[in-house]
Write a structure and sequence with these properties.
The protein has helices spanning 15-21, 26-32, 67-75, and strands at residues 56-61, 81-86. It has 87 residues and is α+β, with helices and mostly antiparallel strands. It has two domains: 13-52, no CATH class; 55-87, no CATH class. Strands 1-2 form a two-stranded parallel ribbon.
Length: 87
């Protein structure tokens, strides 16, 4: 059995690229990047009109265990978007 894997050196796009892509819709960016990386379409903003753009730092956590969320927060840099996927 292997333990958790933490990627510390995340390749992030330039801030100008994130800002430019932030002006487009999700489907446009998804298609432009070869139709890779789209999250489940059932995900919705907490309130209508909410929007954000940034490099994603993803974490998969088992039920009742938030240790890797704390680790991911330490890896995050300003402008990152933390995406938590409970398993």
């Amino acid at each position: 059995m292997t333990g958790p894997v933490v990627v510390r050196n995340i390749a992030r796009p330039a801030a100008a690229v994130v800002e430019a892509l932030g002006g487009y819709g999700v489907s446009t960016v998804h298609e432009a990047q070869g139709r890779r990386g789209l999250l489940d379409t059932s995900l919705r903003p907490i309130y209508a009109g909410a929007a954000l753009a940034g490099p994603a730092v993803t974490v998969s956590v088992p039920p009742g265990d938030n240790l890797m969320i704390h680790v991911a927060v330490e890896v995050c840099q300003p402008g990152d978007v933390l995406v938590v996927a409970p398993t």
